[in-house]
Inverse folding.
């Protein structure tokens, strides 16, 4: 008895199992209209297998779409005992049987109603897109887009024309003001073509962008050209999307770079503050001169930023690529070979900074050049001569030659100015000393203390060399002080009636007029005659 009751149960389970396996193995045949899958059929019907049935249903649906007066609301559903029929007017579109419902969780009636809803919705959309009315609407929309594009291009052209006129008027007004002040304005004729070219290129780029953005909109209006719209938008959207994604992924590295830069920046600020304080004398370091403060700060700043770049380099985008590494190596080699002289001048500038041979404002003699230092940087030194000639001297040249600084001890010890005259042996040297010292004391720019002094530097064949030495604290006025000193020497010697015969003094004076201006001679002075004694 038990076997009698268990057998139907076993058969029922096998039936459900076979049905489940059929559902799993049978994926169904899709009903596709205009590349859109409406639904799937899983079982054949009558003499048609599932594939043939799907083809028949597809042909009938396409036939409905080709009908001019198709109305999706005219689709009807009729249910009887064995079939549910979906029809359009008197034409059968498809029939749904109980076997179709066995592949779903719905009964036959509900499954047929579901198919009817899908057909009305999908076919209605397709018909609307393909109808003459919709085509007319699409054409009108495309015409509107074209008109809008033309209006935008016209507006861009007008805007750039207005902008060009505004720039020209503003430029001409500024030129008129500069011309009124005497400034040269001839370069305006060279600037205007450049401005016109820039505006023309900007206008052209904006028009190209407008046209490019209008094309996807036009393609999207018509269903058949929608893929082209997506393609054109992809050319813009995809790179922007890639950039945005890359930027988001790069944010952690960017934060690391920001932290490294911020720390380095404030360390540089701290070093600059300390250097300023040392330069201004707020505090001092033994053996470290105040004028070293800012050059040392500049060196430390360069080293800190170089170290910062080395630390940041691995976090830069593309730093691990072979191309990036090759470019950096190429630039390094190019810099090494192309800047040997510049590196030499930079090293010489650093050495000169810590040697302290001169500073800005000092009167110096560099080689054969004498003048005031007006600029001193890491590469060159600029000197302005007393003739207002600005001479640029490479630091390596200065380091390889001798340097004379007239200013370094002028304020403390005093700079000694000296000049030499030659006087004959018949003049008392005491008188010559007194005249030279009085001439120095009467010269503007000569210090009263220490007192001027005279050195007899040579006893020549026909004269004696007297060198007057006088102190000054104004080395930048050396030329003017020398000129005044020479004038005073002439005046003092003329007042004393002493001739300055340089470079030689002749001992045969008979019959010759004394070499002193007439204003300094006595009123009764007469030129002596020749003294001739007859031989016995």
């Amino acid at each position: 008895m038990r076997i009698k009751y268990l057998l139907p149960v076993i058969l029922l389970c096998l039936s459900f199992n076979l049905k489940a396996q059929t559902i799993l193995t049978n994926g169904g045949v899709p009903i596709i209209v205009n590349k859109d899958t409406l639904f799937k059929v899983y079982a054949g019907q009558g003499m048609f297998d599932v594939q043939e049935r799907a083809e028949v249903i597809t042909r009938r649906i396409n036939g409905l779409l080709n009908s001019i007066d198709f109305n999706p609301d005219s689709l009807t559903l009729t249910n009887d005992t064995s079939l549910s029929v979906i029809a359009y007017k008197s034409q059968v579109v498809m029939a749904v049987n109980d076997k179709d419902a066995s592949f779903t969780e719905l009964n036959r009636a509900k499954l047929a109603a579901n198919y009817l809803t899908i057909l009305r919705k999908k076919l209605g959309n397709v018909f609307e897109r393909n109808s003459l009315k919709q085509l007319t609407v699409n054409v009108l929309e495309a015409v509107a887009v074209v008109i809008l594009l033309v209006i935008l291009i016209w507006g861009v052209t007008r805007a750039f024309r207005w902008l060009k006129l505004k720039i020209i008027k503003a430029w001409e007004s500024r030129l008129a003001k500069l011309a009124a002040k005497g400034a040269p304005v001839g370069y305006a004729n060279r600037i205007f073509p450049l401005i016109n070219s820039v505006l023309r290129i900007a206008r052209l780029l904006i028009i190209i962008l407008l046209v490019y953005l209008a094309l996807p909109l036009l393609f999207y209006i018509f269903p058949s050209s929608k893929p082209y719209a997506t393609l054109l938008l992809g050319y813009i959207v995809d790179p922007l999307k890639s950039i945005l994604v890359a930027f988001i992924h790069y944010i952690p590295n960017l934060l690391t770079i920001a932290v490294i830069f911020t720390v380095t920046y404030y360390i540089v600020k701290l070093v600059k503050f300390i250097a300023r304080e040392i330069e201004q004398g707020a505090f001092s370091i033994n053996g470290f001169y105040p004028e070293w403060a800012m050059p040392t700060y500049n060196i430390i700043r360069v080293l800190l930023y170089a170290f910062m770049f080395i630390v940041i380099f691995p976090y830069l985008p593309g730093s691990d690529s072979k191309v990036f590494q090759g470019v950096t190596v190429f630039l390094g080699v190019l810099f090494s070979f192309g800047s040997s002289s510049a590196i030499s001048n930079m090293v010489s500038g650093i050495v000169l900074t810590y040697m302290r041979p001169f500073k800005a404002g000092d009167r110096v003699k560099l080689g054969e050049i004498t003048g005031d230092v007006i600029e001193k940087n890491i590469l060159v030194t600029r000197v302005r001569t007393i003739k207002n000639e600005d001479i640029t001297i490479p630091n390596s040249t200065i380091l390889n030659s001798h340097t004379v600084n007239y200013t370094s001890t002028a304020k403390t010890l005093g700079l000694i100015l000296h000049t030499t005259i030659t006087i004959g042996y018949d003049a008392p040297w005491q008188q010559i000393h007194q005249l030279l010292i009085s001439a120095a004391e009467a010269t503007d720019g000569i210090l009263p203390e220490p007192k001027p002094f005279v050195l007899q530097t040579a006893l020549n064949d026909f004269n004696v060399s007297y060198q007057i030495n006088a102190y000054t604290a104004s080395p930048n006025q050396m030329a003017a002080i020398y000129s005044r000193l020479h004038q005073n020497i002439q005046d003092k010697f003329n007042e004393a009636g002493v001739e300055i015969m340089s470079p030689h003094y002749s001992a045969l004076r008979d019959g010759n007029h004394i070499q002193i201006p007439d204003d300094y001679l006595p009123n009764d002075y007469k030129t002596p005659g020749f003294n001739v004694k007859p031989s016995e």
In short: The CA atoms of residues 171 and 188 lie 9 Å apart. The longest strand covers residues 415-423. The mean pLDDT is 80.
